[in-house]
Amino acid sequence: MSSDEEDSDCPLCMEELDIADRNFRPCPCGYQICRFCWHHIKTNLNGRCPACRRLYSDQIVEFVPVSAEEIMRLKKEKKEKDRQTRDMRDPSRRQLSNVRVVQKNLVYVLGLISFRADPPYSHKQNEFFKKYGRIEKVVISKRSAPSTGSSSSVGIYVTFARKEDAGKAIEGINGMEVDGKTVRASYGTTKYCTYYLRHMACPNPNCMYLHEPGDDVDSYSKDTVAIG
């Protein structure tokens, strides 16, 4: 199926042909209309093809049922086309390279010195966060103590399925005493993917950076933080 066919409209009602209409051929001459107009012509008008004047009948109709894979493919292509249209309206994405966006379902935790920075992570570590809600992802990174340079702590990024659960986790964890240390928890931030900034499709399905505009109220620039 060509892109021209996918973008075509019914020549009678001028409505865009949906996925099923694109596989609907009511006449051997190839003149394509939507099923609604075809039914209207058969029921209320002369019942003939507007192009070749052949009498419409169920016997000459060609209709190929659309598979689930085809529907998914067309939806994906339409989504990509809509994204490209938005990109054309907003070509100045590079200015977003300095912007950070607060993620209300992402919690950043610092001060849990007993947590392992390398897998396998213990059941105790998982249970520490699971009590606040369903977790989608946990990323643990090593941090060095500023004075000694030793790996005495880890930074933990916990992605919750719900923003409300992330808020509960911050409220419950921030200020907690663990192993004699005060734990700090706050909302995590992220930046825009470099592929998104270049109007390109990101090849990494597990990319943790943003691929769509974040809310203005949750966005700030690094320059703003430095000035503040």
Automatic annotation (TrEMBL):
Sequence ranges assigned to domain RRM in this UniProt record: 105-190
Any one GO molecular function term: ubiquitin-protein transferase activity
One GO process term, biological-process aspect: protein ubiquitination
Domain of life, per lineage: Eukaryota
Domain RING-type as annotated: residue spans: 10-53
Zinc finger (C3H1-type) boundaries: 187-214
Alphabetical list of InterPro entries matching this protein: CNOT4_RRM (IPR034261), Mot2 (IPR039780), NOT4_mRING-HC-C4C4 (IPR039515), Nucleotide-bd_a/b_plait_sf (IPR012677), RBD_domain_sf (IPR035979), RRM_dom (IPR000504), RRM_euk-type (IPR003954), Znf_CCCH (IPR000571)
Biased composition (Basic and acidic residues): 75-93
Places the protein is found: Nucleus
Start and end residues of each stretch annotated as Disordered: 75-95
Gene Ontology CC terms, in alphabetical order: CCR4-NOT complex; nucleus
UniProt xrefs under Pfam families: RRM_1 (PF00076), zf-RING_4 (PF14570)
Protein name (record): CCCH-type zinc finger transcription factor
